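As the next step, I selected for study one protein, both as residues and as discrete backbone shape codes, as given directly below:
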Amino acid sequence: MATLVLSMEVELGWGTHDKGDFSHLSEGRTAETKTLNELLEICDNYRIPFSFDVVGHLFHESCSGHPESPHPTKWFAADPQTDYETDPIFYAPDLVSAIRDANTEHEICTHTYSHALCNQISDSAFSWELEQVTKAHSEFGIAVPKSIVTPRHQEPSDEVLRDYGIRIIRTPVPGYRDRSRGNLETFWWILTRSHPVRPARVQNGVIRSYCTPHPSLTATHLPEGQQSPHPAFSAIPLRIRQWLHRRYLQTALETAVAKDTDIHLWTHLFNLSNEHQLAVVKDFLSTAARYRDNDELSIVTMAEFDTGAADLTKG
């Protein structure tokens, strides 16, 4: 049977704190909060679980700095050292609670503690990140994570992952669109591309669940969060762009079912946080539920790969 995994990065301001650009987020994160609550309700209606990979710092109600951090001082420069009411893009315990308390049993996995870039830090610094994640999950009454999505899909140390009990990682399909293309070719590719399907594999004792390097559950040719798409896409009527993405998702499911393999679709919370993206995703979740109810598809979290790893990772 084909297997579908859905994951969402909940990072808010931490996703770009090293770049200092938060224009993609709504004022007071009102749109992101509303969208997450709507998505959780949709998931309850269709009994569909997500893997929410959450930056560990968002678990905090407040903080007063990180003097014990192994990172350079400037790494936490954007942290306002306030609380979730004052700066809700850096603290979001209410969002973590909403996921935890939903009727559907979602997975809360990790996106590191501070959106650390794994190829720019030492293994000891990465261990510190996961140690802070373990503390944040434990203090919140949530199981320590079994799976991880690393920021910008940078490769971490498998040994450190194993040391902290993390057995599953989301990783891009090797070689996916790895050659440069001109603007016109890129424009056409985005509109007509198909989603790769690939069975999960074990490497160095860690299960790889394969995805695209860019968000796939949402579309770059639709408005993303508070940002409009490139003008070249905006020239195409919205309903046509939504139809193109519905077709992309539908074809991805049909391919996975036909090949009896795995498919991993993902996005960021901010990508989804407008009505145009959410409408397409709602339709897709309804379709996925029908496939599941017809016994053509299994919908699991990343952590649930651990249960059937011997079967899911053969070959």
About this structure: Confidence is low (pLDDT under 50) at residues 308-315.
